[in-house]
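Review this:
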Amino acid sequence: MAGAGADGRAADGRQEGSLVARVKGLLLFGLTALALAGCSSTSAAPPPVKLDDLNVQPYMDKPCTLLDADQRSNLGITGPGVAEQSGDFGTCALPTPTGTVRLTVAVKRPKYPSTPIKIAGYPAEETTSDIGCAVGVQVAGTQQIGVVAAGPNTNSCHLAENVATSAIGTIKRNNP
């Protein structure tokens, strides 16, 4: 111990060991306080947003009503579409200059290999292939909005995402 005599005392006569013990205690207290302060601080990540569940059931037999004429025009869709229903799915086949976009609402969420994304804040999955892109947006429990944009359009995923976003907007407007 620096500055200590043969008897362990500092030059001023105090026990060197007690000074070291107090410094260690002070350091331990300070480090503990800092650690606890870190536990109570707010995280840099924002809290998760709770989205309202959307009910797609009313659109099962009329999926083409999810896009009005202005939305279809803005998305490059050239007509009102043709509705089809099959069990747990309601589908609207929408014509585009380069192919067809299929907008689907489902009450039982199918599972396919995909990449997780977000659409209008909702958890979604995107699957691409050489013939187009499919987007599935989970809007409530097992309910899902699905869009498949097929054809030679190189922006098929962008189109599918935009169609899904527009359909979600329609459901929110009509089901406050």
Q: What stands out?
A: Residues 1-5, 18-43 have pLDDT under 50 and may be disordered. The beta strands are 82-86, 89-96, 99-106, 115-119, 122-129, 132-140, 143-150. The chain is about 30% helix and 30% strand.
